[in-house]
Design brief:
The protein is α/β, with parallel strands linked by helices. 37% of the residues lie in helices and 13% in strands. The protein binds 6-O-phosphono-beta-D-glucopyranose (BG6). 6-O-phosphono-beta-D-glucopyranose (BG6) binds next to loops.
Length: 483
């Protein structure tokens, strides 16, 4: 008997700003992502207010899904996808964010994409906002710190719910909303940054934390309002949250390390999860605010809206775990592992991410135990360099191993009793990395012929993992062998 439920949603995930390209085509406006240069593992991406001539902005072409969507969806269907997680570019629908009317060509594009999915029986799973917003909202309003942005978002979300009422039933309000309280001031909240700055780097001051948490509060309210409206427009809509799943282990059994890891899990995961699933801030929030001199403007009406607009399911991304200690000598030794110290029991990817399938089982049990609503893993995968062999094939056994390990642990979590409803590995067709802006950091089952020198014709080639994942889906997660 299979451990995965019969209607388990197997699929894959992408995001518009990393994949779609066509950044200024058919009336699309400039998004916050469109002003980020490409970087590398040790050279941070940089924001430029004005576009620099001859500079590389990875979002501008992405993997050119805009002109390849039929071919790409056919490839996904070839693996037997039940669902495809993708995001809508806000700037394709409302180019400036505060426009009176939506851009018809943008609406038409996504209608075509969703219809193409439906043609193959693929259920679209749509992220309304994935690490981008109209840059005009940053420039003219200061991003999510301004309350008026709530109304712009709600209008945008309502437009999508109405327009695609019969085509889309699975929605996510914000991608990795908790990144807004970590380093995502610009990327996640559209807060202004200085020209030439690396927008997601460095220490946060109390003032940064104040701004991020106020912006985040506005996103919570916007998300809750979107949930309420989405349910009104179609009571079949399933509207979820999306959290960057943070698994924090203590390095030792020293109580200080244990408490540090506990606090990190609370702040990084439950702060946002509790508001979106339970409809209220958790017990530890007040102390966190006090210790960082944060004073949030939360109205009585906001509190009511948060209660009424809780999500239907909990989704998250999971790539790796973090290991924490209060011992400064150990922390120093960690060098470039910004989120903690090296875990001696785990292997690390070329980009410094710990590979830890069991951390996924831990997280699934942890959040399901806390919230008791259906959960879905909407991102997971190994960013790695792929080599195209002389015969044109790509033998990505390392990726198969990584995914196999995680699927095995999902199975264990289901046996543990977790109501896991789907799995959409990240970057199912190669796309640009969000963190570094590189094409070299690939996640896909399908190779895209494009590199960081902007060479390549965007042609698509299934990798070895493509055929492996097809078999996984066909067998509903039973046959994981890499033959
Ligand atoms: C998640 C994001 O943080 O991780 C994606 O939702 C991102 O947008 C993915 O691409 C992997 O990160 P990276 O930096 O390797 O692209």
């Amino acid at each position: 008997m299979t451990e995965f439920p019969k209607n388990f949603l197997w699929g894959g995930a992408t995001a518009a700003n990393q994949y779609e390209g066509a950044w200024d085509v058919d009336g699309k406006g400039v998004s916050t992502a469109d002003l980020l240069l490409g970087g590398t593992y040790d050279k941070a991406r940089v924001f430029t207010k004005e576009l620099k001539a001859n500079a590389y902005y990875p979002s501008h072409e992405g993997s050119d899904f805009y002109h390849h969507y039929k071919e790409d969806i056919k490839l996904l269907a070839g693996m037997g996808y039940k669902t495809y997680r993708m995001s809508v570019a806000w700037t394709r629908i409302f180019p400036n964010g505060d426009d009176a009317e939506p851009n018809q060509k943008g609406l038409d594009f996504y209608r075509n994409v969703f219809e193409e999915c439906r043609k193959y029986g693929i259920e679209p799973l749509v992220t309304i906002s994935h690490y981008e917003m109209p840059y005009h909202l940053t420039e003219a309003y200061g991003g999510w710190d301004d309350r008026r942005v709530i109304d712009f978002y709600v209008k945008y979300a309502k437009t999508l719910f109405t327009e695609y009422k019969d085509l889309v039933h699975y929605w996510l309000t914000f991608n990795e909303i908790n990144i807004g309280m970590l380093f995502g001031g610009y990327m996640s909240l559209g807060l202004p940054v200085k020209d030439g700055a690396a927008p997601f780097n460095g220490e946060m001051t109390d003032e940064d934390i104040q701004n991020n948490l106020q912006g985040l509060h506005h996103q919570f309210v916007a998300s809750a309002l979107a949930v309420k409206i989405g349910h009104k427009i179609n009571s079949n809509n399933m509207i979820g949250c999306m959290i960057a799943g943070n698994v924090n282990y203590p390095l030792t059994s020293r109580p200080d390390d244990v408490l540090k890891a506990q606090l990190a899990n609370e702040i990084n995961n439950y702060y946002c999860g509790d508001v979106q699933v339970r409809g209220a801030y958790p017990h530890f929030a007040q102390r966190f605010w006090d210790e960082h001199n944060v004073k949030l403007n939360i109205t009585a009406e906001d509190a009511e809206v948060l209660k009424e607009g809780t999500v239907d399911y909990y989704t998250f991304s999971y790539y790796s775990s973090n290991t924490l200690t209060t011992d400064p000598s150990k922390a120093d030794a960690a060098g470039n592992f910004s989120t903690g110290v090296k875990n001696p029991y785990l292997k690390y990817s070329e980009w410094g991410w710990a590979m830890d399938p069991k951390g996924l089982r831990w997280y699934l049990n942890d959040v399901y135990g806390r919230y008791g609503i259906p959960v879905m893993v909407v991102e997971n995968g190994l960013g790695a360099r792929d080599v195209v062999e002389k015969d044109g094939s790509i033998k990505d056994d390392y990726r198969i191993d990584y995914l196999k390990g995680h699927i095995e642990q999902m199975k264990e979590a289901i046996k543990d009793g977790v109501d896991l409803i789907g799995y959409t590995p990240w970057g199912c067709i190669d796309l640009v990395s969000a963190g570094t802006g590189q094409m070299a950091k690939r996640y896909g089952f399908v190779y895209v012929d494009r590199d960081d020198n902007q060479e390549g014709d965007f042609s698509r080639t299934p990798k070895k993992s493509y055929y492996w994942y097809k078999k996984v889906i066909e067998s509903n997660g039973e046959d994981l062998e890499n033959k």
